Amino acid sequence: MDDDLALLVLLAAAAGCRPAESKVNILGVTTVAGNALQRHTFADALHISQRVNRSLPVLQGAAWWPPFATSWRPRGPSAASRFIVQTVLKEAPNSVTLLALGPLTNVAAALASEPQLAGRLKRIVIMGGDLDPDHLDLNMLSDLEAAYQVLCANVAKLLVPVQTCTQAVFGSQHLEAAVNACASAPRERRSHPHVHDTESPVGCTPALLAKMRRQLWMMPKFINPRLKQVQLS
């Protein structure tokens, strides 16, 4: 759910919805299995891209399940890792920032398949890690080998640990605001080959709201039960 929200924020920035901020040029989106199946993460990215009328390349990457099951995890190149390599090499050197919001399987595969890639990237921003040396977050734990490979790569990296993420809390009051906004929005009918709901409020879907509810219930109990949410003043 947090990945969906991050993509929506980036798409808004790319569209110039907040002129005071630097405009973002999104080159594409790749998906990976993490705390959800690959087919769900891929469908989400396609759906969000369609809902905001953006023709973004959306590529599937590692599809292993469940997390932590090393024997199930493919190590070779995927459509996602090949896209990362091709896109970065096509752009000017040190002009592309790779934003990794999930397990690092796709990123590690891309770096392993193309030795020039690390030297062409501006940096990799990673949502992962933990300030507590006795713990690791879900993204790192989901593919420890890939995380090690990426962290050892000779490229600038910015790690955003779970403690930082708890300062950007999406709470029940935000969910209710989203529900109210969706209820008051006009409806339109659209179809998409990868998404089953064909009628939904503009800019926000019942499926997205259902996931918000599940994640609000699940995250404090199972994903990060030891972390306290920190509200910024």
Structure overview:
The chain is built from ten helices and seven strands. With 233 residues, it is of the alpha/beta class. It has two domains: 2-165, Inosine-uridine Nucleoside N-ribohydrolase, Chain A, CATH 3.90.245; 172-223, no CATH class. The strands form three sheets. The protein has a three-stranded parallel sheet. Helix 2 (38-51) links the parallel strand 1 (29-31) and strand 2. The longest helix has 18 residues, at 206-223.
Features:
single chain, 233 residues, alpha/beta, Inosine-uridine Nucleoside N-ribohydrolase, Chain A, 2 domains, three-stranded parallel sheet, 10 helices
Integer count of domains: 2
Termini gap: 24 Å
CATH arch. level architecture of the largest domain: Alpha-Beta Complex
The CATH first-level class of the largest domain comes to Alpha Beta
- The total count of strands amounts to 7
Strand order of the largest sheet: 3-4-5
| Element-level helix/strand string | HEHEHEHHEHHEHHEEH
Structural class: alpha/beta
Uncertain regions spanning at least 5 consecutive residues: 188-203
What's the pLDDT, averaged over the residues?
A: 76
Give the strand content: 5-15%
CATH fold category name of the largest domain: Inosine-uridine Nucleoside N-ribohydrolase, Chain A
Query: Biggest β-sheet: count, sense, barrel?
Result: 3 strands, parallel
Q: What is the helix content?
A: 40-55%
C-alpha-based Rg, rounded: 18 Å
The CATH homologous superfamily of the largest domain: Ribonucleoside hydrolase-like
**Tally of DSSP helical segments:** 10
Q: Report the principal-axis shape.
A: globular
